[in-house]
Amino acid sequence: MAEDRELQTEEKTLQEESGATQAEEKELSIEEALAELEGIIEKMEDRESTLEQTFAYYEKGMKLVKGCTEKIGRVEKKIIKLAEEGQSYGV
Questions:
Q1: What is the CB neighbour count within 10 angstroms for residue 33?
Q2: DSSP category for residue 89
Q3: Residue 28 Ramachandran class (φ > 0 left, ψ -120 to 50 alpha, else beta)
């Protein structure tokens, strides 16, 4: 019974952390997100983490990866556009 309450409290905390980090992830630079990912990997490798904690770290890490991928994609599109514009000017 006490274990169930403890697990519910832990899950609620992880959900709150996950919700709070969504806004933070959008504001992070790629470098900051990569640094945070390194920290998450260290936490996941920690043998003291529970399965639920490890899953929450994984979920947060995947959101950071998705955010980085989207930012890199936008930058690539800008580079392509600038290259095309440069070609049209004979550069």
A1: 21
A2: T
A3: beta
Domain that holds residue 42: 2-88
CB 61 within 8 A of CB 21: no
Q: Which residues contact 62 (CB under 8 A, 6 or more apart)?
A: none
Q: Tell me, yes or no, if the pTM score tops 0.70.
A: no
CB 21 within 8 A of CB 63: yes
Per-residue tokens: 9: 């409290």
Instruction: Put residue 72 in one of left, alpha, beta given phi > 0 → left and psi -120 to 50 → alpha.
Output: alpha
Look at the chain and report how many structural domains it folds into: 1
Structure confidence by residue, pLDDT tens digits, 31-72: 999 999 999 999 999 889 899 999 999 999 999 999 999 999
Closest CA to 32 of 72, 62, 68: 68
22 closest CA partner among 71, 73, 66 = 66
